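Notes continue from the previous slide.

Worked example: a multi-chain complex. Inputs as given:
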Amino acid sequence: MINFEWIYFFDLCGTAVFALSGAIAAGKHRMDPFGVIVLASVTAIGGGSIRDALTGATPVFWISDPNYVIVILATVLACFILVRKPHKLPQLTLPIADAFGLALFTVIGAEKALMMGLSGMSAVIMGLITGVGGGIIRDLLCRQVPMVLRTEIYATASIVGGICYTLSIEVGMDKTSALFFAMFSTLIIRLSAIRWHLSLPAFDLKSKRP
Amino acid sequence: MINFEWIYFFDLCGTAVFALSGAIAAGKHRMDPFGVIVLASVTAIGGGSIRDALTGATPVFWISDPNYVIVILATVLACFILVRKPHKLPQLTLPIADAFGLALFTVIGAEKALMMGLSGMSAVIMGLITGVGGGIIRDLLCRQVPMVLRTEIYATASIVGGICYTLSIEVGMDKTSALFFAMFSTLIIRLSAIRWHLSLPAFDLKSKRP
Amino acid sequence: MINFEWIYFFDLCGTAVFALSGAIAAGKHRMDPFGVIVLASVTAIGGGSIRDALTGATPVFWISDPNYVIVILATVLACFILVRKPHKLPQLTLPIADAFGLALFTVIGAEKALMMGLSGMSAVIMGLITGVGGGIIRDLLCRQVPMVLRTEIYATASIVGGICYTLSIEVGMDKTSALFFAMFSTLIIRLSAIRWHLSLPAFDLKSKRP
């Protein structure tokens, strides 16, 4: 983990955002309260757990630091009390918060890989897994083709962010600047995609061609 | 693992029950015999495998102890021979057996976490993962929204059982009493839910509100 | 890993084949280019990753050896350029290539388990996980009941191949012969199943019986 208290604080914010998106998905499937907790948890800490299991950084991060689970429980509780009418939320609140979570988790995943001495390529992949893994599990459990695999420029933003961070560190930039640069890149790409409905041309083998 | 032979025996019984539920799910999807073995296996040892991978207790438990796989193979074989007409089974046989498996796996998962020196909160989570993880993978492979996330008080029973076990150990109760107390709590909740179709109020964001 | 350069070369070929099958599945779901990369990757290295996470061989194999990821990226790139009309491919190209990948990954998984000193039974299971794990994740992400669980003799071929390899090693056959014997067994079973649409009798609990 990056050695700054405010990064840790941001990390917990990202956890809360992803927990919220899991809880809302659970609400759309009418799950019971503990089902909501389970879905919020896998969304928030699923990606980091896969990263830690693959790299051998076990026990995984949330086992030794209870704050992650506490943040998730608090988020779910707040969600039960407050989020009664999600369609009353300003429409883009959740995607924008989610974009911040994605940007931050990507950088944290890449940084954790670099700290373990893994290669730059592995760091990009670990950033991607940390950023999108939880959302993939959430969508699988709700029986949907994972949003990140076909929505506008989602995995793309994470991969670009991971590359920016890794390259910045390799050319000697300090961690704080690299963090801001990589997060900024991810956010600008993802938010632009949301704002203007951008998407990369799909690889489409389904439609007929003459 | 709890150091009593009969716990080990119960653990193998829980494995058989969960393998049976996996095999029956496979039969409902007309899988071939080795597909049935795969589905029975992930149901029976999937939860414990995730637990061990997350906590770093690798190689996972069934690699070093062949009895688990043997029990699964024997269960599947028995299932091929005997279970030709599952609708002829007394209707509640499987849910009740499953409730026992859930109760036992929850306690074993929590105990294993405590033995590794993890916190009480982590022990509850590990109990939950051990108890419901296999069923979640089974339902995913059969392309269903996991039963444990929306059925009557399933994850709930496991979480309560895990809390009972962890608290009992922390207040100094001996392991055998704690085991019975926690299993009893889980069973009473789950069986009541089955018997009277109890469920917690769903967190429902789908229906319209005036 | 078996200590022969050409095995390593074959392993990379298997990786390319499975990456191709993932990329084609992604194309059928109209994913964006980075979604295609993600799906190709989980198909190609998902099974081996699960194997390594379960046995504790972490960091998993592709983290320390960048060639696997490079092969995947090259395959996806080639796929973008060349595979515009998959229905123009000779119809059995992909299943046959896939059968080779299955045979090779099965043997490599079993060999890796034996090298770690695991039992013969665990070696067979690790061969199976390596051979079919990636395809299962691919199908889950595309929201399909995994092909390997119900298609003609797929898991079966892998299990037989794993047993052949493990038994051959245990009776003292040298690794190269055991490898060819086991791959040959897997291929003959799988290719026969493809050619003559063989399948084992399904375990069918769905249809009514008089």
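Summary box: The interface with chain A takes residues 23-24, 26-39, 49, 52-53, 56, 58-60, 63, 66, 69, 79-80, 83-86, 140-143 of chain C (CB under 8 Å). Residues 5-194 of chain C form one domain.
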